[in-house]
Amino acid sequence: MTATVLPRSGARTRRHRVWRQPVVVTALVVLAAWLAVAVLAGWLSPYDPLAQSADIYAPPSAAHPFGTDELGRDVLSRVLHGARLSIPLALAIVAGALLVGGLLGLVAGYLGRVADEIIMRVTDLVFAFPQIILAMAVTAAFGPSATNAVLALVIVSWPVYARVIRGAVLSIRGENYLSAARMLGVGPVTVLRRDVIPNSVGPAIVLATLELGNAVLLLAGLSFLGLGPRPPAPEWGAMVALGSNDISMWWVSVFPGLAILTVVLACNILGDAIRDRFDPNLVGGR
Amino acid sequence: MTTVETSAPPARRPRVPPIVRYLARRLAIAVGLLFGSTLIGFLLVQAVPGDPVAANLSDEALGDPAAVAAFEQRWGLDEPLPVQYLTYLRNLVQGDLGTSQHTGRPVVEDLLDHIPATLEIALPAILLSVLLGIGIGMFAALRHGRAADQAVRIGSLLGLSTPPFWLSLLALYLFFFVLGLSPGGGRLSPEFSPPPSVTGLYPVDALLAGDPMLAWDAVQHAALPVLVLTLVTTATLVRFVRSALLEVLRKDYITAAHAKGLPPRTVLFRHLLRAGLVQIMTMAGLTFASMLAGTVLIESVFAWPGLGNYAYTSASALDRPAILGVTLFVAATYILINLVVDLLYGLADPRIRLS
């Protein structure tokens, strides 16, 4: 091993050129393309994603570029429509978790004492469960549906936001501008809204970007287990599960799986880049 | 989670060694979490919309008034909620997690049956992942910012972004259907019967029984699930090892070690790896725990009769007692492994041991 172990001085400056890295640009383009697909799915799809036909398990061809599944449905049309399902649902999961976790983190960090203790203990508790397992138990308890899957994934993913927001609030709690506002007689709600929230929301937004890919992956996992949107909804995870009925028909699961992979990978590359750019301390994540 | 107690105890208090205080604190936290997880389990049972009897008994048992009455009696359903929780706790302490709706057997027995199969793939996978994770992570950290480092970063992101259930299907398609290298799903080929159970791990038991053919068949069956599990886990560990080592690389004592002319190899093994190793072991412990959850999305594809497959079949049958049983079991394992890792950490880190 001849490599020098000294840190290289070039690393720092290189980090700031992150937006010009081809990988990051590609990830942005891929995500933008998927967003476009989600909006234009109805117009782009050659077939109705739910329409069955006698042409079952047709391999990829000019008529069906991604082939057809066991009910003769066009896999391409279903993958395109899947974007319309997975992307908004993942956004809803992240938004819900950000809202719940953010509020609780805000309360814990700002009020401190008992509120902080209780909220942080509950956070630890939820962390004690592996996400997919707890989400599975919640959806199974409430019954499988798209709404309950989102609900379950919000329940398992808010704690990380609560921790980050609480940390951000704690770091500004002693700042003079907060004391000044309080001494001027500004009410606690106004202080929170005008001073605390704007100054602590940054890290949470970074985290939300990082977590978007995770949300897509977890949702697909739940659907794969049959606990997501009900069939025949074209959910990517559920479509991959269909492919396991007969593995020789590889196209049934390969294409929806590639859809999940590309969206999640793009989110993760972007999240990584954003984290490097804005928050070198978040390295490693959870 | 790991708070290092730095302040010296006041002189008048009886002197408790810091290590004892640290261990006691970790133990208390673990017990609290275990207790709390039962509360979550109980709340989930309560949250079931509609009748808990209908949600927990099979259709067959529902038609039988005696079975319904027995169920109500067992879980104290006519009592107020706090009493119900105590009944639930008492049953839990006695190892009663309820009866599975689709197997009709006690959930605890089902769980015990499925654990060895999961260990059979999880143990080799964690071993391989730790070795690969340290190797690749170190390789990347020492080439920080260069092309090789970038490649490792993208590669590990790729591993993290791949749905494990999809990867399993691809592996099965390629190695079983196209190449014919894998014997397919299950733990053994149909012509073999399981070896007499000693450890519950088929390859080990087969060797103990002096049957190398059987052991080889078991190994071949385990290969693909181990491969997928290893790939997914290695991705997480590589990222962790890389950032942990980069952290250590920035330390002054590494620069000092180089400055005083120590050979790079000595710095690497004596200083760098040693400092990073405690953290890496912590992470490996936690990864092993989360692997139990990860198998949920893998085992079903390989018809591998482990915990993950049990969770999967329970979930698709909406078998609530079984799902809750698995959930509690995995959470408890997670908490206990966490505790062990914390304790080892306390013993290994001189700042906690001696402070």
Automatic annotation (TrEMBL), chain A:
It comes from the Bacteria. Residues 87-271 form the ABC transmembrane type-1 domain. Its main location: membrane. It is found in: Cell membrane. One of its GO terms (biological process) is transmembrane transport. The chain crosses the membrane at residues 22-44, 85-110, 122-143, 149-169, 204-227, 247-270. Keywords: Cell membrane, Membrane, Transmembrane, Transmembrane helix, Transport. PANTHER family: OLIGOPEPTIDE TRANSPORT SYSTEM PERMEASE PROTEIN APPC (PTHR43386), PEPTIDE ABC TRANSPORTER PERMEASE PROTEIN (PTHR43386:SF25). This is D-ala-D-ala transporter subunit. It comes from Prauserella flavalba.
